[in-house]
Amino acid sequence: MTRKRVAVLISGRGSNMTALIEAAKDKNFPAEIVLVVSNRPDAGGLTSARNAGIATGVVDHALYGKDRAAFEGTLQHLLKEYRIDIVCLAGFMRLLTAPFVRQWDGRMLNIHPALLPAFKGLDTHRRALEAGVTEHGATVHFVVPDMDSGPIIAQAAVPVLAGDSEADLAARVLAVEHRIYPQALRLVAEGRVRIEGGRCMIDGATTETDAAPIPPDSDR
Ligand code: GRF
User: How many CA atoms lie within 13 A of 197 on its CB side?
Assistant: First the structure.
C-alpha cells in the first residue's frame, strides 16, 4: 500500500490536526501527515506538529497584504515541494480563491463545526444555541469554491442539552470532530469516495448511513 501524502493547514491550536497525526501513526492508516502549514506564525498547532516530528511551514498571510494569488502561490509551491496528494484544512481561517481550490478538486477536505448545510460560516455553536436546535454536530466535506458547501464525506450529530453554554456545546462537537476527520481521511485516501452529482458515494457502502458514517457511539 502506498500511503497518501497529506498536508494539514491550520491557523490555531490544531486539535483536529493532532487527531489526524495520531490516526496516521498506525502504519495501516492509508495516509501519512508529512507537512503542517500555518498562515499564522504564532499558531499553537505548529509546536504540537514539531513535537510530533512533522515538517512545518508558515505562509504568513499578513506579509501578502491583499494579494491572495501571491499568498496561494507560495502555499502551492510548498505543497508541490512536499509532493502532497491530499490537503486537510483544520481550523484554517483563510478563504481560498476558486483557482486555488480547483487545483485540489476532490483532494482537499475541510472540517466544519456544524451539520452542514446548517450554520455555514463562523460562530456556529452560538448560532445553534440561539436557533434552539436540539441537534448540532460536525461535517467533513470536500472543499469547493463556495464556502462550507462541498460534497459531504462524513457527519456526526450531538445533542444540544438544556443549559448548555457555547463552550459546553463546542467541547461536545469537538470530540466528534476528532473522530470523524480521521474516518473521512481514511475513506478518501483509500480511494473509496466518488463524487456524483455533488454528493459523495462511498464504495462498499450500501446505505445512506454508510455514505455519511455516523459513529456508533454518537447520540444520534
Ligand atoms: C474546529 O472546531 C474546526 O471544526 C473549525 O475550527 C476549529 C479548529 O479547532 N474549522 P482546532 O484548531 O482543530 O483545535
Answer: 1
Q: In Å, how far from its chain's centre is CA 203? A: 21
**pLDDT score of 154:** 98
Is residue 101 lining ligand 1, measured as CB closer than 6 Å? no
Ligand 1 contact via 57 beta carbon (within 6 Å): no
The pTM for the full model equals: 0.93
Cell of 102: 480547483
Q: Is 177 in the pocket of ligand 1 (CB under 6 A)?
A: yes
User: Could you say which DSSP state residue 53 is in?
Assistant: T
Whether the bond between 117 and the residue before it is cis, its omega within 30 degrees of 0, is yes
Q: Please give the pLDDT value at position 206.
A: 62
Q: What is the pLDDT of residue 219?
A: 44
pLDDT value at position 212? 52
Residue closest by Cα to atom 3 of ligand 1: 91
Domain identity same for 3 and 98: yes
Query: Does the beta carbon of 112 lie inside 6 Å of ligand 1?
Result: yes
112: annotated active-site residue: yes
Range of the domain at 59: 1-104
Atom of ligand 1 nearest to the CA of 12: 12
What's the CATH number where 187 sits?
3.40.50.170
Percent of the chain at pLDDT exceeding 70: 93
Q: Report the domain count for the chain.
A: 2
Which residues of the chain fall short of a pLDDT of 50?
Answer: 208-211, 214-216, 218-220
> Whose alpha carbon is nearest atom 2 of ligand 1?
113
Contact 7, 15 (CB under 8 A): no
